Amino acid sequence: MKTYENIHIKEKVLYDKSNNGLKVYYIPKEGYSKKFAIFATDYGSNDKIGESPEGVAHFLEHKMFEEPDENIFDKFSYLGANVNAYTNFNQTAYLFSCTDNFYENLKLLIHFVQDPYFTDENVEKEKGIIEQEIKMYEDSPNWKVYFNCLKGMYINHPVKNDIAGTVESIKKINKEILYKCYNTFYHPQNMVLVIAGDLSFEKIMETVNKREAQKGSIEGKIERVQANEPENIQKSYMEEYLPISIPLFSIGFKDNFESVNESGEELILRDISTNIMLNMIFGESSLLFQSLYNEGLIDNSFGSYYTGYKDYGHSIIVGQTLKPKLVFERIESHIEDLKRKGLSREDFERIKRKYIGNFLTGLNSIEYIGSNFVNYYFIDFIFLDYLNAMNKINFKDIEDRFISHLRKDNFTFSVIKPVK
Fold it and tell me: What are phi and psi of 164, to 5 degrees?
């Protein structure tokens, strides 16, 4: 067992490895009545084996809750736990929170994630359910304006593809494909278990070792295929019509090649500096937001954020407005004006303090700690070092990021307009 402690935030994490290679991290939170566990695999919609169809990772997440003679949700509910799962571009995770019966719930979590049950019949049945989910998102204006923006920015990278796949791609999925992808990506050596609460780490490890299946070798070789994504964008303007009353827009700025292929602290510094920069320019306290809001051009739906991973990254500015072209022109003009005048050091200091405050407040939530620990674990970073990384960010980092990232040649403007 190893212990890592960050004395500045008075938090520590205990680490051990199970008998079959699963890495287990425990963040003790003395006096907390709530407990949290998240069991995740380094497998998201961007990952594939050979020519496997789009949407397999998401399909697997759905099917993992399938049991031959019991309802997993009912069993967690009986034990007083709330269970959930999610699939994103980079990982799939299964999680629960509870106040009592933690170790019983942990046994159940390990059991259903490590003992899949796929049949021809239940796979075919699930296709209909997921097809309805895909069609629902295709009718969602917010979802469409976002993914149209991604499709405009990216040429080869799978991040432009819907996480659930397409109606056509899921028809190609069968139980053999599911088992092959499961046996490859759900091997304990490709997974992590993170637990937070007032618990016994010795009992946690005892429970894990007793309940874990004895997995053999990884079935398929895990190869993180480089998408060979060029620096240029696919299309600068994307437009679609849906039955809405007010147009929606999404402006995406794609990272250049030098800003990706990073991991660990480098990636975290990229994430922090970009989000601080976006908050300075587009946040609710910014001159741009106040001006557009007071003129009635935007409402509280207006916002911005950065998303980055080892091999991709982009900033998104979103909102709704009756005059999307005018708002876009004002945003573009404001960016160029700031490049001439320069950013505000005072704004930087204030927003950086806000980010530090948000992080410290988040440490009071075991869900916040556990979920973020998993997110950063898969990019080779220990979450407890987040504040250390944040303190390394200086004003020049923000200025440099602003100039290199918000450019005229790397954006896509996506708009959803009302049906005429």
Answer: -80, -5
> Whose CA is closest to 81, among 40, 36, 38, 112?
36
User: Would you say the C-alpha torsion 319, 325, 330, 332 has a positive or negative sign?
Assistant: positive
Q: What is the pLDDT of residues 18-33, one digit of tens each?
A: 988 899 999 999 999 9
Q: Measured between alpha carbons, how far is 40 from 94 in angstroms, rounded to an integer?
A: 6
Interstrand relation of 312-320 and 23-28 (parallel, antiparallel or unpaired):
unpaired
Q: Exactly one of 30, 51, 61, 126 is catalytic; which is it?
A: 61
Domain 237-418, CATH homologous superfamily name and number: Metalloenzyme, LuxS/M16 peptidase-like (3.30.830.10)
List of residues 6+ apart from 420 with CB closer than 8 A? 241
Give the number of other CB atoms < 10 A from CB of residue 179: 14
Q: What is the DSSP letter of 255?
A: P
Q: What is the pTM of this model?
A: 0.92
Catalytic residue status for 265: no
Tens-digit pLDDT profile for residues 267-308: 999 999 999 999 999 999 999 999 999 999 999 999 999 999
Q: Please, are residues 368 and 29 in contact by the beta-carbon 8 Å criterion?
A: no
Any idea how long the chain is? 420
* Axis crossing angle, helix 264-282 with helix 395-405, rounded to the nearest 10: 80
| The three-state (H, E, C) secondary structure of 12-42, written as one string | EEEEEECCCCCEEEEEECCCCCCEEEEEEEC
Distance CA 109, CA 211 (A): 10
CATH superfamily for 2-211 is Metalloenzyme, LuxS/M16 peptidase-like (3.30.830.10)
Residue among 396, 414, 377 nearest 276 (CA): 396
